[in-house]
Amino acid sequence: MRSKIILFGDSITEESFNNGGWGASLANHFSRMVDVMVRGYSGYNTRWILKVLEKVFPVESSTPLAVTIFFGANDACLVDRYGGFQHVPINEYKQNLISIITLLKKRWPTTVVVLITPPPIDEEGRLRNPYGKNPSGLPERTNEAAGAYAKECIAVADECGVSVVDLWSRMQQFPKWEKSFLRDGLHLTAKGNKIVFEEVVEKLKKEGLSVETLPVDLPLFSDIDPQNPLKAFRT
User: Fold this and answer.
1) Range 28-41 average pLDDT
2) CB 36 within 8 A of CB 66
3) What is the Cα–Cα distance from 91 to 89, expressed in whole angstroms?
């Protein structure tokens, strides 16, 4: 059976197989080697996902090579803004991430876990693209709050001994990141997806999972002898 990598997260993960998405790029990158599977749940925070974690990862599931965990953008919604129903206090967010990692590592000790921090927030972009009525006229997320949750995500990775992509910091290293990487102040453009793809590939490579180290599925066409094609399929 071909190995698998599971992408687990909120809408940024659910959308990752859109045209130019980071999940689609991973699937192409690991073609013939790994099945890349999406488990993305738009709008979910870590509190909600903990309630259904056993449904997402049933006991009988086979061991994945790796799981990316990409939550926090919804947890970081400000409690007194129109998206406040999604808010999860930062200390609870940290504990929820630890609980998710603990369950996965207990079930699959060899699975590589890669945390991804929330992305930075373009507050002006959120005001132009609200997902509901916004009586206050204020963005439901701020970049400062996203940064605080990103910091806790990094702390969890250090505490649990897993890899982490600091997307919040990485994107802000580029000029005009607000419009270049975010289409609505939160969700990713093609360039934003490319950043996530590149960072995840780099983290997986450091964990020993790369196109150079993973076996391909079935003989390559280049390895098939034109004079005796069936020889390649004998075991």
Assistant:
1) 96
2) no
3) 6
Read off the pTM: 0.95
Query: Which one has a higher pLDDT value, 83 or 147?
Result: 147
pLDDT at 229 (0 to 100) = 93
**Assigned architecture for domain 3-233:** 3-Layer(aba) Sandwich (3.40)
8 Å CB contact between 115 and 174: no
Displacement of CA 195 from its chain's centroid (Å): 12
List CB contacts of 1: < 8 A, sequence separation 6 or more.
62
Residue 38 in tokens: 């999406």
| The pLDDT of residue 1 | 74
pLDDT band at 235 (very low <50, low <70, confident <90, very high): low
| 135 contacts: CB under 8 Å, gap ≥ 6 | 82
Residue 208 per-residue DSSP state: T
Check pLDDT > 90 for residue 228. yes
What are the residue ranges spanned by the domains of the chain? 3-233
For residue 113, which amino acid is it? Answer: V
For residue 21, give the nearest of 70, 61, 63, 62 by alpha carbon: 70
Task: State pLDDT tens for residues 71-87.
Answer: 999 999 999 998 999 99
Kindly state the tokens that stand for 87.
């808010």
Give the CB-side neighbour count of residue 93, counting CA atoms within 13 A. Answer: 29
> Which residues lie closer than 8 Å to 227 by C-beta, 6 or more apart?
none
Which positions are annotated as active-site residues? Answer: 11, 184, 187
